[in-house]
Structures are given as C-alpha cells and as structure tokens.
Specification:
Elements: E1 2-9, H1 13-24, E2 29-33, E3 49-50, H2 59-69, H3 76-95, E4 110-111, E5 121-122, H4 128-143, E6 146-149, E7 151-158, E8 169-176, E9 182-193, H5 214-222, E10 226-227, E11 232-238, H6 249-252, E12 256-258, H7 265-268, H8 281-293, E13 303-306, H9 312-330, E14 339-348, E15 351-353, E16 365-367, E17 372-373, H10 386-401, E18 420-421, H11 452-472, H12 479-493, E19 497-498, H13 500-517, H14 531-555, E20 564-565, H15 573-576, E21 578-585, E22 588-595
Parallel strand pairs: 1-2, 1-9, 2-6, 9-16, 15-17, 19-20
Antiparallel strand pairs: 3-5, 4-5, 7-8, 8-9, 10-15, 10-21, 11-14, 12-13, 13-14, 18-22, 21-22
Helix pairs in contact: 1-4, 1-10, 2-3, 3-10, 5-14, 12-13, 12-14, 13-14
The structure holds flavin-adenine dinucleotide.
The site of flavin-adenine dinucleotide has 43 residues, from helix 1, strand 2, helix 4, strand 7 and strand 14.
C-alpha cells in the first residue's frame, strides 16, 4: 500500500494546481492519474483564461458578468472568490513562465469573449490549455511531487457509516494500467478529486475519450451529492464530423456566423441584437439549431463560421491552431473558406457538491475543477471561466487538504435546515440494479465505522475481487455496444432542446443499459494496457452520470441558461432559484434542493432578464 498526506486524483489543470498548493503547505502529496499529466484534457483548451487585470476592468464586473451568464444560478461566494483570486493566480502562471500572447508593449494580451463586458480573456495563441498544463507540470517536476501516472482510480476508500455525511475518506484504490496490479493509496489528510468532465456521456462532444466523469460517479456512489447535473453546455462552434472544438476565440477576434442564405443570423433574426456572435454560448447554440430547424441550415445540419476577413497575419498570430483543426478534421482551408460548425457537448456545469474550500460533505474528500460544482457557472458557464476555476479552486482545495486555515466556507454542503426534498416522476425505476452493485460504498461489512487502514484494505479487497471477476468472465455483452446506445440516446434526447417525452425515453434507455451492464464482459484477458477493462469500469460511471443528468433535467420544469424545456419556456424564479441535488441513497437516486446564494460580500445580485 502507498501512503501520502494528500492524494490528488487526476493531473489536469485542477489536479496540478492542487498538488502544487498542497506541497507549498508542506504536505507529502501525490498525483494519481490515468493519463500522463500533459495528456490531460486541459491541454485541449484553446481560448483563454478570464482575469480582471487591466485598468477599466474590475473583479466586480467579472463577477457580475459571471452571475448574469449563470442565469442567476451561481452562488455569489464562489463567483466572488473566483473573480477576486483569478488575477493573482493568472499572474502566478506568468511568473512560472507561461507563454501568454502579448501586446507590442509587452503586456499580456486580452481578448473579448462571449458574455463578457470587458475584453478580459488572457490567452496563449489558441493553445492556452497546452501551455497551462506544461507550465504547471514543470512546477510539479521541479518540486519533486510524486506522480503515479497511468494508474486508474476505480474506488474510493470511504467508511460505511449509514449516514453519508458521517463517512470519512481515507484513500483510493487504483489499477496500474501498465502491470494490471491493483493497489491501495492511503491518504493521511485527504483525497482531492480532479478527474474532469463527463463528456463521453454524449456521442458528439468536444471532450476526449478519457472524459468519463469517474471522480464524480465514485463520489456519488460513496454518498456525496451531485449538484445541478442537468446543466450541460453545448458549445456553438464544433466541427460537424468529429465534435472537435473551434474556439470562441474566433468569434472573440471578430469571426461571423452565417446561415445558408448568407444572413448574419445572430443580428438579422434578432437572437442577440447588441453583441451578436458574442452572446453567451447557450444563446448562440440555440440560435444555430433554430436556424437549422427552420430550414436555414447548411445541409440541414450546420452553419458557417467565417474568419477570412480577419486577414492571414492576424489569424496566424492569434488563431493558427484553428487553421490546422479545420484543415485536419474537416478538410477546410479557413483562410479561403468559412468553417462548418454546429453545437456539441462541451462542458458540465454541475458535478460533485463542494464549498469554496473544495470540501465535500464527506470528511477528507475534496473535489475541484470540472468534476466539481462549487458553483460558479450555475446554469451556463461563460467561455474562459473554467480555466480560472481550475487554478483558483484547485489551489484552495490543495491548501485546505494540506491543513491550511482558509476560514469558514459560506457555502454549505450536505443537507441542512435550508434544504428541501424533491420529487420527480420517472417512467422506470432509476438507480442500482439489485445484483452486481458491488461498489455502492467502499466497505460492505456493516454499519460501523472502521479505522483508516482497515477502510483502505477492505476497499482494496473488494476492488481486486471486482477486477478478477471482470477478467474471468468470458462471455456476455461488450461495453462498446452499451456505450454507443447510451451516447446516442443522450445526444438525441437530452440535448440543447429538451422535452418531457424525450427525457423519459432517455431514462428508459439508461435503465436498459444498466440492466445489460450486469452481463458485461471484458474481451481482452491481458493484464497490461487492458483498455477494454478500463473502459468497462468507466462505462458504469457513464451510466450513473447520464441518469443523474436526465433526472435533473426532468425535475427542472423551467428554462434557465443551458437548460431549455419545450413546455416550460420561461425562467421561473419564484420556484427555481435553487440547486438540484441527487444523492445515491442505498442505490436509489434521491432528489433534493438547496437555495441559490445571491448574497455577495457587499451586495445582493438581483435576477434580471438576460439579454445580450
Ligand atoms: C476542447 C476544449 C476547449 C476548452 N477551452 C477552454 C478555454 O479556452 N477556456 C476555459 O476556461 N475553458 C476551456 N475548456 C474547459 C476546460 O478546459 C476544462 O473544463 C478543464 O480543462 C478541465 O480541467 P480538469 O483539471 O478539471 O480536468 P482534465 O484536464 O480533464 O483532467 C482530468 C484528469 O483526471 C484524470 N483522471 C480522470 N479519471 C481518472 C481516474 N479514474 N483515475 C485516475 N485519474 C483519472 C485524467 O488522467 C486527467 O489527468 C475547454 C474544454 C474543451 C473540451
């Protein structure tokens, strides 16, 4: 068994920042990651990092834009922390050597992004995430932080008290992808989940195949609530054939969207009369699909994004990567022709419920980055606000797990006097299928607390048994078939435009897949680099997360941010200024709500009609 003070699961932007921060507090910290750190999906981030750095801008304006962008579902203490800390964290990156794009006078460049009232997005060409990862990985190497890369974490070692909020997390169990060994990692202080988003729940996504939401699913089954899962961001500019992202930076630099009739529809059809293409992502994605649905799309599928008028010099200077993506994945020379684009799954606003210090309601268990919901993005994330979330809340979680006093959090986690029960009528019973739910909680031995070492040991035994079982079974159904079914149903039924029947159909499909999963088997019996085994374990996570997304979407009968319901096309503030939470209650998803916090440190954010 390995042992460290702090175990960070995941080595993307949030994980690397958390590890550096914990190390700076004097902790013995280790990163455990299924990918090598610089292969993490943060490396795909293109457009930039929002930070109020310039004269004329302020963190208060950034906070206002973020709250408005969230459609008043973000929590003010989290949003204010993000916007206050982002400038310092961004400058820290610069001091660590990050290659930001610069003006002629040497200042870090900033460009406009959707939903921002000031050009406050710092960037490194259109490869911001790549530079961010490399810069922080260098700091990890410099500090000698232990990295266990190509270790797949498949289970949390959590005590099995009946009341989830009385449970404690003492470590994780991981599978060494290189050797097939299953090992325990004990954490003396805490475990920080930074496992990224669940994009693979959908088949048209900008996310990598590794984005299977493992941390969120494991935390959910261990007893931590998932928050606001229905809010999935569909990015308006993805390449139709692959889902590869064309950065919002293109529109930030002046790129224009056209329909098949050559109309600049964002203005000409009145979707966003003030800022057009630079409205927030939910607004632009709906506009594009409306154009297609009303017969003004190209090949009934997509619209055009044109950047030719920006000129070759500016494009090469600021958006060179986009030229390569358009050429390599769509065969389009974007200096000569417009690029075809359509909305695709891009980001999960919801995730593991945490407070501003990254803590969950299970003692010793933290989460940060896209797998967490603190909540800064509410119903819709603004472009350029995820990367600052990684560095701001990654650092806070790292410090707190290492023992630093960050003061009491203003956001509460778990059930309190302010929370209320919820109900949602479902066509099939959601949740675990009776047999085979072997990893609902870490230790199935009874309802008493067990000591830390025993908790990790018993989780290790259970996980070794699960892996052996999967490798020994030699017939059944393969995960790839189930994954395709799940992804297709989610893409068809739980997309930008949602209706009750579609959501119910998705729940039926998810139930079918869950039942079939009981008969899943791994075709490849080998112990080294067995990606079939890993993807089979990931599949279980996709099922739980798809169901959580759909349950939240069915429960929320209003239109807010990225969540649009055909029969409920209005925001219902009196009823719905609250977060949706789902707890895995003995294998049955339990729905409940907690109020949104609109009270900031110095002012209350008043919900207004959102127009751009
Ligand atoms: C194409 C694209 C472009 C984007 N551009 C921008 C942008 O310009 N600006 C912006 O603000 N946001 C952007 N975003 C969003 C932002 O990049 C992501 O939200 C963010 O990078 C996620 O970082 P993370 O650290 O939470 O997760 P990731 O970077 O995805 O890292 C997850 C880590 O967890 C590890 N992991 C996962 N599961 C396990 C497991 N079971 N066991 C062990 N390790 C595990 C992985 O190996 C990886 O190291 C973009 C997103 C995409 C998809």
């Amino acid at each position: 068994m390995y042992e460290h003070d702090v175990i960070v699961v995941g080595a993307g932007g949030a994980g690397l920042r958390a590890a550096i921060a914990a190390h700076e507090e004097g902790a013995d910290v280790a990163l455990v990651s299924k990918l090598h750190p610089v292969r993490s999906h943060t490396g795909a981030a293109e457009g930039g990092i929002n930070a109020a750095l310039r004269q004329g801008d302020s963190w208060e304006d950034h906070a206002y834009d973020t709250m408005k962008g969230s459609d008043y579902l973000g929590d003010a203490p989290a949003i204010e922390t993000l916007c206050q800390d982002s400038p310092e964290e961004t400058i820290q990156l610069e001091h660590w050597g990050m290659a930001f794009s610069r003006e002629d006078d040497g200042r870090v460049s900033q460009r406009p992004f959707g939903g921002l009232s000031f050009p406050r997005t710092t960037y490194a060409g259109a490869e911001t995430g790549h530079h961010l990862l490399h810069t922080m990985y260098q700091q990890v190497v410099k500090r000698g932080i232990q990295v266990y890369d190509e270790w797949y974490v498949s289970r949390l070692a959590v005590t099995n008290h009946d009341d989830p909020e009385a449970r404690e997390c003492h470590g994780v169990i991981a599978y060494d992808i290189k050797s097939g060994e299953v090992e325990g990692f004990a954490a003396r202080n805490g475990v920080i989940l930074t496992t990224g988003g669940p994009g693979q729940v959908y088949d048209h996504t900008t996310n990598a195949v590794a984005n299977t939401g493992d941390g969120a699913a494991m935390a959910y089954r261990a007893g931590v609530p998932l928050e606001d899962m229905e809010f999935i961001q569909f990015h308006p500019t993805t390449l139709p054939s692959t889902g590869v992202l064309i950065s919002e930076g293109v529109r930030g630099e002046g790129g224009i969207l056209y329909n098949k009739d050559g109309e600049r529809f964002m203005f000409e059809h009145g979707y966003a009369n003030n800022v057009g293409e630079l409205a927030s992502r939910d607004v632009v994605a709906r506009a594009e699909l409306t154009e297609v649905n009303e017969g003004r799309g190209i090949e009934d599928e997509y619209v055009h994004l044109d950047m030719r008028h920006l000129g070759e010099e500016r494009i090469i200077d600021r958006l060179e990567n986009i030229l390569h993506l358009a050429e390599d994945f769509e065969g389009v020379d974007a200096l000569e022709e417009p690029m075809p684009v359509k909305p695709g799954q891009h980001y999960a606003m919801g995730g593991v419920e945490t407070d501003e210090n990254g803590e969950t309601c299970i003692s010793g268990l933290y989460a940060a980055g896209e797998c967490a919901c603190v909540s800064v993005h509410g119903a819709n994330r603004l472009g350029g606000n995820a990367l600052p979330e990684l560095i701001v809340f990654g650092a806070r979680a790292g410090r707190h797990a290492a023992g630093a006093d960050l003061g009491a959090a203003k956001i509460t986690t778990g059930k309190t006097d302010d929370t209320e029960p919820g109900e949602v009528e479902t066509p099939v019973e959601p949740g675990a299928v009776e047999i085979g739910d072997e990893d609902a909680v870490a230790d199935g031995s009874g309802a008493t607390l067990v000591d830390p070492t025993r908790t990790v040991e018993s989780a290790l035994e259970a996980e070794r048994a699960r892996v052996e079982h999967l490798l020994e079974k030699d017939e059944g159904i393969q995960q790839a078939e189930l994954r395709a079914k799940l992804q297709q149903s989610m893409t068809q039924n739980v997309n930008v435009f949602r209706n009750e029947e579609g959501l119910k159909q998705a729940l039926r499909d998810i139930r079918d897949v869950r039942e079939e999963y009981q008969d899943v088997y791994v075709n490849d019996p080998s112990r080294t680099y067995n990606t079939d085994l890993i993807q089979t374990i990931e599949m279980r996570n996709l099922i739980d997360l798809a169901e959580a997304i759909t349950l939240g979407a069915l429960a929320r009968d209003e239109f807010r941010g990225a969540h649009w319901r055909q029969a409920h096309q209005e925001r219902k503030d009196e009823q719905w200024l609250k977060h949706t939470l789902l707890s895995w209650n003995d294998g049955t998803p339990e729905l409940w709500f907690k109020p949104v916090i609109l009270e900031g440190a110095e002012k209350e954010y008043e919900p207004k009609i959102r127009s751009y």
